[in-house]
Amino acid sequence: MRFLGYYLTAINLVTWIAYGLDKGRAKSGKWRIPERTLLLLSLAGGSLGALAAMLMFRHKTRKAKFVVGVPVMFVAHCIIVVFAAVKLLQR
Questions:
Q1: Closest C-alpha among 73, 84, 17, 86 to residue 45
Q2: Which of 31, 51, 66, 91 stands the most exposed, by the fewest C-beta atoms within 10 Å?
């Protein structure tokens, strides 16, 4: 369970940074991080970081696949973590 905590912390930090970098690049007209990459980071467990970045940076808040997809991923990730914790406690 400790590994899961470390993994989720790292992937959420990386995702939050990626969304922040993409927002900065969007403002300055530079090369952007592909939407697919941002969504894959969210799917890989970084949904909390993505959600936080979307709210903090006001980034990707007009795109339905982010506005709907990221919160759905977050709920799914919460269910998975709770399920894993319950299974671990049953041992």
A1: 73
A2: 91
